[in-house]
Amino acid sequence: MSGTRSTPSRSPGCPECDGQVRTDGTERVCGDCGLVIEADRIDHGPEWRSFADDDASPERTGAPRTRARHDRGLSTEIGRSTRLTGRKKRRLARMRTHHKRSKIGSKRERNRVYSYTEIRRLIGELGLPESVRDQACALFDSAQDANLLRGRSLEGFSAAAVYAAARAANVARTRTEVREAAKATAGEQDAAFDAMNRELGLPVGPTDPAEYLPRFASDLDCSSAVERRARELARRAVEEGIAGGRDPSGVAAACLYTAGRQVDASGAVTQREAADVADVTPVTVRSTYVDIRGYRSRD
Amino acid sequence: MNRQDLRTVSREYFSDDRLAEHHFRSFNNFLGRGMQDVVDEKERIETDIGDKEGQEPVYVELGDVRMVTPRVREADGSEELLYPQEARLRNITYSAPVFMEMSIVRGGEDEPETVVDSTETKVGRMPVMVGSDKCNMAGFSDEELIDIGEDPVDPGGYFIVNGSERVLMTSEDLAPNKILAEYDTKYGDEIQVAKTFSQRRGYRALVLCERNREGLLEVSFPSVSGSIDFVTLVRALGLESDEEIVHRVSDDPEIVKYMLENLEEAEVQTEEEAIEELGKRVASGQGKNYQLKRANYVIDRYLLPHLHEEGVEDEDVRINKAYYLCRMAEACFELALDRRESDDKDHYANKRLKVSGDLMKDLFRTALNKLARDVKYQLERANMRNRDLTVNTVVRSDVLTERLEHPIATGNWVGGRSGVSQLVDRTDYMGVLSHLRRLRSPLSRSQPHFEARDLHATQWGRICPSETPEGPNCGLVKNFAQAMELSQNVEDEQGLKRELASMGVEGIPGIEGVDRQTADD
Q1: Residue B442's closest CA among B192, B197, B155?
Q2: What is the mean pLDDT of residues A146-157?
Q3: Distance CA B353, CA B351 (A)
Q4: Which residues in B68-221 belong to E strands, given as ranges?
Q5: Which of B76, B80, B282 should we substitute to test contact with A (largest number of A Cβ atoms within 10 Å)?
Q6: Are residues B75 and A129, on separate chains, in Cβ contact within 8 Å?
Q7: What is the pLDDT of residue B126?
Q8: Which of A2, B287, B378, B521 could form a disulfide with B394 if both were Cys (CB 3.0 to 4.6 A apart)?
Q9: pLDDT, mean of residues A108-124
Q10: What residues contact B88, with CB distance under 8 A and at least 6 apart?
């Protein structure tokens, strides 16, 4: 179906009575006389494309551009053929080697290749969306441009970039979660993050404990009722300033623990379990629990 | 049986959900054994670490592979079970995480081998066939299916990749590991050729045995350009004396005559000479030692690979390769003497069907190789940068996922075949059923191929005689008959061979210790 469909506001009105036309789900209906002007806007068929000349035509070729490659995914590769033999085959092998080497021009670029690979791996490992991946790569570029890398490790910057990008995109992972997946040590990651935060002014405020809830809830096998209650508690905790000065992941764990007790006391998770998924001490969970257990649900 | 009984039986037969059964059986088989087989074939990932002085070599040992049921990981990190309808609506892939046991082992040179790190790690995601054993709705009742938004009469048997339903086309290939004798023309003369597509573990090699116009036998196989003398090759394989060669080919006096002509023309007499001669062919212009090494390697690697056996030295199967070549020679001569007809390539006994599980196995094999290359690279990189080598940080799980999803999404399979996966035809219910039971011949539709398009007598009961498209694909795209049952490969090939050996079959390598109950004792 064509994409040049006029919007209801600019449409000329009902063809029969000139009344106001409204769009109702998949139908366009006249509001006055009830005439259905158009129904069923779903395109059921596959996108029609011809692949007949795909082999010959260079028009459609390669993957889309991506931020997550040092060359934006635009580089070419010399392919292989089984038909070539002898001298020509060896010549092509030589050309391939040179071609591969020429892809990386400088030490800077080499570092970028390595770090981008690590960032892509981390994103896949942590199950973060592609936008975060591109953001993390851009962040790494900024760090490189600001000469922050000297004396710090590439692995640290990769991990820190992923951590910061995830946090900025409101899909925060805890430091420990990133570190466990990363090649970097805790020290390297923290050094890199501190440097970036200081020099680049990262747009990261305190993490909302609610961001951690879905993940912790699925790790702890909580029911959706518990998760919903925990979300309410988390909002109250933030509103009333209880979350301030506490580790947000600890607050999230405490909310889940509290919600578990309130919704279904028998099957609730223990403080220890909640603390383990959030990687905080049970003491943190307990102290937050003491503060929020008075909250009653509104219904 | 009277008519009433027949009706009852057939009703019972057709009431069962068996329309996509061949897909389920094949894919479940792949999940149950195929995946582990592929991993066991690979066994380990070698690295270049340790090539330098004073460095201990490192390799990765691959262990058990395990798969769970499909689940989706949200951006917030939570993980939930995924049902097909959700995958369709959200344009995501109905796939399940695959885990593999991997251990990094260092040492073996000066120090003893030590396991540096050993864990079960997620290696990627495998698209899951709707309705298979690993599908989340396996064993659901109709009511439960309706609850999760699924149509209870939907046959399943397809995959969901990026929200679109994809069915893997069954493909009809020439049977591998079988001698097919046929006529061919070369420089205007008619010659006789015996062909074998030798296949083992995804490696496919065509071995040709030709009887040229002078009546001499020539063999060609991959990695040898042109062809090589039959007698030279069997001598290189250890079948040395004239008498033995002739006897192994045939006792027929006329064939013996032909064979003697061949032996007279032979350039080499002993095994050593033959291997030298072969070395000159496979590595001309190289040093003598390298030629010999290369010749031995080529024989054990590229010639008739299907005769190899698990856990049997390559050298021990050489004589079997020689015997096999003799069978091919016999087929050529018999064809030349009009003792037999040329084999019918369209005969259904000479065909094998590749169903979704076989196709997925091919895919998984190349994907795993790609993953292995990546792990090797990551390990070398980590080692160079003096990092601790841990399994979790060297496996990039998107490598495998990407390699498995992309071919299903586009239809561009490994080995350059395209159109292997197709969008399920949802025009109507019958369309779906027909699509799931369709099979495709790999022959090009732009060429006539009259015989291949014809209805063959052996298709009786197997292939529907009337359902085929009109136009260029006529006769190349076929559909299963209603009551067709697809038989499968034996599960335990070793067991079968042991059984055969106990019944008196001799010369199966690796199975010598079996007590033979022969008829005369």
Answers
A1: B197
A2: 89
A3: 7
A4: 71-73, 79-81, 95-106, 114-127, 159-161, 164-168, 170-174, 180-186, 189-200, 203-211, 217-220
A5: B76
A6: yes
A7: 94
A8: B378
A9: 90
A10: B160, B163, B165
Whole-prediction pTM: 0.83
Closest residue in B to A172 (Cα) is B76
The answer to whether residues B50 and B58 touch, using CB atoms and an 8 Å cutoff, is: yes
Closest among B185, B183, B227 to B208, alpha carbons compared: B227
Amino acid at B152: P
Contact at 8 Å (CB) between B62 and B30? Answer: no
**Amino acid code (one letter) for B259:** M
Across the interface, whether the CB atoms of B396 and A215 are under 8 A apart is answered: no
ipTM of the complex: 0.74
Q: Name the pairing type of β-strands B438-440 and B170-174.
A: parallel
Is A215 within 8 Å of B423 when comparing Cβ atoms? Answer: no
Beta strands in A11-97 (DSSP E): 21-24, 27-30, 36-38
Distances (CA, A) of A167 to A189, A193, A209: 15, 12, 12
What is the pLDDT confidence band of residue A11, given thresholds at 50, 70 and 90?
low
Nearest-angstrom CA–CA distance, A128 and A211: 13
Strands B79-81 and B95-106, by their bridges, are: unpaired
- Picking from A124, A127, A180, the nearest residue to B396 by CB comes out as A124
What gap in Å lies between CA A296 and CA B313, rounded to an integer?
75
User: Distance (Å) from the C-alpha of residue A34 to the closest C-alpha of chain B?
Assistant: 30
Task: Please state whether beta strands B95-106 and B58-67 pair in parallel, antiparallel, or not at all (unpaired).
Answer: antiparallel
A-contacting residues of B 208-227, CB under 8 Å?
225
Q: Do A121 and B396 touch (CB under 8 A)?
A: yes
Q: Is B78 on the interface with A (CB under 8 A)?
A: yes
